Amino acid sequence: RKVAAKPQLEVPAALQGGSDWDVKKQEELCKVVAKDLGFDFNRGRLDISPHPCTGGPGPDDVRITTRYSETVPMEGIAGTIHECGHAMYEQNRRAGAHSGLPVSEPVSMAVHESQSLLWERMVYQSEPFWSYMSGRVREYFPHTEKVTPSNFYKFVNRVSPSLIRVDADEVTYPAHIILRTEIELGLIEGTIPVKDVPKVWNQKMDELLGVGVPSDAQGCLQDTHWTFGMGYFPSYTIGAMIAVQLWRHLDGNSTTVQTALAQGSFGQLAADLTKNVHSLGSLYPSFDELLVHVTGEPLNPDYFLTYLEEKYSK
Fold first, then answer.
1. What is the pLDDT at residue 248?
2. Given this model, what pLDDT does residue 242 score?
3. Catalytic sites, residue numbers
4. Fewer Cβ close by (within 10 Å): the C or N end of the chain?
5. Which residues does 105 contact at the CB level (< 8 Å), separation at least 6?
6. Alpha-helical runs (H) found in the chain
7. Which residues of the chain are modeled with pLDDT < 50?
């Protein structure tokens, strides 16, 4: 709430959404960006769905989806980059003699989310990235010609409590996860009756984010997760913490990496992630053991908190 209370960026008119943001052009742009990041279209494809996701039968056929909107033009780009993180993990898992064996499988969904969130938050939401990305956007949307890379960067890092988890910024996102996890624990322990979920949800949204919920569709029914089970939601925030710890180990804030992002050169970063995470599969059977192997220590939440404090105290 302290960050959200600060004066908000005045959104440039060109980024406010409207008919200039043709969804077909957004789709073309996102395919170019996905290829630039390292997604292999010879072993995958990018399509449209109501909710961005990644799937497919295996590393040689990885299918990702995103969604496009004229009114929220950046969500297609953000969704594509997020899902590319998942997809490149899938495409680069242990191959050869290990292909199809349990050791080739991802360690956990938290590690999977770390890969999508590393590309979304450490790359897409970084300032250097927009030196490259603003040029790509202008190729397809010339009406953004006067929007500076700095303004793009500030735009995609706005902080404002919101109703919808998938649209939440990285500062308030953990509150959405805490809310869901507390409700899941209550349901499992029997302290929250199913019929009370909407009421408890609305109370927690007010307590954690100061947001009123106008309908269950925008409240407890907004996610698909509970249709197939419980316990997934913490993977998002654990994944965010893993992403920051990996980024720190890979010296992501170094001049070398930051210059590469600004130039749209992502090959070395993709190779480093493949070497340190993707290609290892489940050789290290927990995210803590993987992190000890890669970074020298198990999950350390302090890195995540420091990252948020340093970034959003500016």
1. 97
2. 98
3. 83
4. C
5. 93, 281, 282
6. 23-37, 74-91, 109-117, 129-140, 149-156, 173-189, 197-209, 234-249, 255-262, 267-276, 287-295, 301-312
7. none
| SS3 at position 96 | helix
| Cα torsion angle, 48, 50, 51, 53, sign | negative
Question: What is the rounded CA–CA span in Å between residue 21 and residue 147?
Answer: 15
Provide the pLDDT for residue 3.
64
Rounded (5°) CA angle 201-159-206: 20
CB-CB contact of 201 with 213 (8 Å)? yes
Distance CA 54, CA 168 (A): 20
Strand order of the sheet with strand 61-66? 44-48, 61-66, 53-58
Q: Which residue has the tokens 């322990």?
A: 189
Residues facing residue 58 across a β-bridge: 61
Whether the CA torsion 6, 12, 18, 22 is positive or negative: it is: negative
The pLDDT, as a whole number, for residue 159 is 93
Contact present, 151 and 204 (Cβ < 8 Å): no
